[in-house]
Amino acid sequence: MDVSGLQRRGLMYVLSSPSGAGKTTITRALLKQNDNLIVSVSATTRPRRAGEVQGQDYIFADIPEFNNMVDNGDMLEHAKVFGHYYGTPREPVEQALERGQDVIFDIDWQGTQQLREMARDDLVTVFILPPSARELENRLRTRSKDTLETETQIRDRMSKANDEMTHYSEYDYVLINKNIDDTIAQAQMILDAERLKRRRLVGLSDFVRGLTEGL
Predict the structure, then answer these.
(1) Which sign, positive or negative, has the C-alpha torsion 113, 34, 17, 184?
(2) Which domain holds residue 166?
(3) 176, 19 in Cβ contact below 8 A?
(4) At 35, which CATH number?
(5) Is residue 105, in this structure, part of any structural domain at all?
(6) Which residue of 18, 23, 26, 97 pairs with 161 in a disulfide if CB–CB is 3.0 to 4.6 A?
(7) Is residue 151 very low, low, confident or very high in pLDDT (cuts 50, 70, 90)?
C-alpha cells in the first residue's frame, strides 16, 4: 500500500468567545488562509438582516421549521441565544468530514458541549478571551455604532460575556486576543497541529502493515 491510499478525515474546528472578543475576524482570516477549510452555515430563527443571503450567511427558518429539524435529528447542536434559536445542520458537516474537509464553527459553549457529546474525536475547541473587561466593553460600544444597539443591549452582551467566560476550562485551547494578527497565527498553528494527529489518518493501520510486510 502506498501513501496515496491514506486519507485524512476532516475535523470540526470550534471557535467560541464572548461578543466582541474577535472570533468572527479570526474565522474570516482562517477561511482566507486555508483552501480546505469551510464554514458551518447555521440555521436560525432570527430575522434576516439587510444584505444577508439565505444559505450563505444563515439558513433562515421559522420556529416550526427549526423545531422540525431538531425533532428529526437533523441538527448536530442547537441553542437559544438572545431570544432566537441557532443550530448546526448535520448532513453538510458529516459529508465534509468524509471528504477530508475541515469545518469551522462560530458557536457558543452550549453548542460546543453538544458537539462534544456527539463527535468528540472529530472536535477541536478554542476559546478566545479579550485582554480585559474594559477592552471588551470598548469593542462592543464601537461596534454598536454600526449595529445601532441600545445601551440595554450592550449591557445584556456584557452580562452574557461574563457567563460565557466561566466556561473557558471546557475547551482544548484558550487564546487571549491581545493582538489580532498574533491570535490568528496561533489559531492557525492549532489547526495545523490538529490536522497531523494520528487518529485523523484513515487507512494508517493498513499502510503500516504494508510497510512491515515489505521488510
Answers:
(1) positive
(2) 3-40+100-213
(3) no
(4) 3.40.50.300
(5) yes
(6) 18
(7) confident
